[in-house]
Amino acid sequence: MRIVFCLAFCVLSVAAQNKEDSELSNPYEGQTTAIEAGQKRFREGCAACHGANAEGGRGPNLAENQDLKRKSDGQLFKTIRYGIPAAGMPPSPLPDNSIWELATYVRSLSASAYELSMPGNVDRGRTVYWSKGGCGDCHAIRGQGGLIGPDLTNIGATRTAKQLTEGVLHPDQHPVEGFRGVTVILKDGGRIEGVAKNYSNYSVQVLDRQGELHLLQKGDIRQVEFQQKSLMPSNYGQTLREEELQDLLAFLSKQSVRPDLKETRASSRHSGDN
Amino acid sequence: MRRFIFFLSCVLIVSGQVQYQDILRSPSESWLTYHGDYRAHRYSPLTQINSSNVAHLVPKWTYQVNGAHRLEATPIVYKGVMYVTNSNEVDAIDAQSGKSIWIYREANAQQDSVNRGVAILGNTVFFVTADAYLVALQRSTGGVLWQKKFADTKKGYFASLAPLALKDRVVVGVSGGESGMRGYVAALSASTGEELWRFYTVPAKGEPGSETWGEFDTQYGGAATWMTGTYDPDLNLVYWATGNPWPDYYGGGRRGDNLYSDSVVALDGETGKLKWYFQFTPHDTHDWDAQSIPVLADLPYGGQVRKLLLHPNRNGFLYALDRVSGQYLYAHKFVDQLDWAEGIDAKGRPIEKPNIEPIAKGRRVCPSTRGASNWMSPSFSPETKLLYVPTLEQCDNYISTEHTPEPLHNLAAGGAEGIPTEPGKFYLRALDPITGERKWQYAMTGPGTMWAGTVATAGGLVFFGDDDGQLIAVDARTGKDLWHYSMGQLLTASPITFSVRGKQYVSIASASDVFTFGLFEPEVAP
Fold it and tell me: Which pTM does this prediction carry?
């Protein structure tokens, strides 16, 4: 039996080895059962180096890893199959289907919310966004909406489901650089309220609610007061019903400026064109 | 009272929109196009920094672009905000303090590439991703308005240029000439990204010009359009330079002139229709793209003021064309190291010498494949009437594999290599654009590897990046060096100058940073 298993494994491995990276595609892509099976295998064989939640240890962080996100299915498969001996990562003896399950799990860690199916109704979520939730008062999508909060046009394509959910429910725990509420009192008594795009002891760059930038220097300013809490309400968990929240998250998860994100894998670099 | 004025001048509110008329007046305090203006003069009317005080220029700030190692962008500045690009990224910077305002990164871009900058129109900042999307960003926040794919990477295209915004549209070109793609120029709606017109720089079979390719399949002719063109608003003509025919170093499979490679094409801004073309290097086998900037100048010639297009070409000749009709007027050698042609005939065609084709064992030909000049920006001063051209004196050993490679596999069918005993040397040359006379030249030191350009000013100065990692200011009339500063990095971009709240600055993007300079000001006690 052991011989038969080994033979089958060797045949599969040779088949995969002989294929170009671009010819290999994950047969389990996005499948929940494969993600779960892959997670189990990951904890058995990979967590010792990469951490139980793949957030890094002796080996690199594989969760929300942009470099990994850009690897093709074939590159990911072969990395697991053959390891990276120079970096201390051993080859895997697992059969191909198990490696694909592992790859499916690892891919899911950095998959954008857009690529996964989040529960909820997108159309109803749109209504929540523009009415009850009041999100559009501060956040723009494709140029519509307020300017003082982070632009959400591409939020589904650039955040994982976990990040998206956390950002909506607990904004204070996930401050976004460049969006700290600020009030600047000018030396002439004038007052500017908005978000600090940047600040130092010598200058402050403020975006106000009308979308105007105020580029201020030390000599202009009498006082700068930063808000301690995020400008974004932190009580959506209470003000929205559970299904409204799910609908809103489903709507946000579908915000992508590019329609086909699978094209983003297997990137290349051009050094120039001269 | 003095304090009051000082105070007022220090608060800058950035509002308003960039109108087409604003771009027509650029450069002024702002720098609104890749070339500063539509004519590619790269001439600023600012005079605060001038030949009498440039020695007091000091660094004001340095901004590091995260992860950058080869910035090729010309910064755009509007009302105190500077926009700089790296691969798939735009950074908006407070131009007075050097502090970041916002950064847009296209995390889902399929490729990486150098990038040469943004265009600005209305409330929108435009740039291209390496995988050939035109991206429209809200000017004050960097929020994305839309993206539109304008070329297919699977067909060998990528993008690196700064777009050209005019009226209601944004004109773009494509990179990838070494892959065997088919070049084109396209205009996209500035409000939606919808394609308004497209002009292919390699004619399809049966179209005029296709007969200049012999039996070659013109789906793969190259003639990329990877640098920003220029524009004459009065004629409503867009002038775009084109790249080499593909494969670069072997012409046996593409017998004929290979139109419209190595040319400048004049396109109707409204329709994209070809008004005229002029080919500098027919049937090129030395990778002499015509990507030097077409400079539009009105100068006296033959007893009248003519609307000229000046082109210091990679092949070593400075050309002048009538930009209304495309008529060839004259050409002058602007490098000493030129041995491939006796000269240019009355119709503008090079009189080629024998035995200049690349061969398997290599053949020495001058200029080098990098060209007598390349995409580094020249500048033209209407005051001195001189054209300032970064110039490379170098020859190369040209090698050909002597076979036609498979398209889309990034093969050039050969290459060129430097000759160890003949290192290249860069000069900044001040040329009389009518006679071709060298009024002066500044000999640079360095390894012969830079890609930096120039900016001329009404302060009687020319700023340029040199081959030794230095930004240099020289007297525009004499070439006398007046100031320099070493960035300590290979320079691959062109400098600009602008003004914020009455203070003039000079900036250049270097390998990983943007450096900005201004006049020394003693600290004022509070």
Answer: 0.90
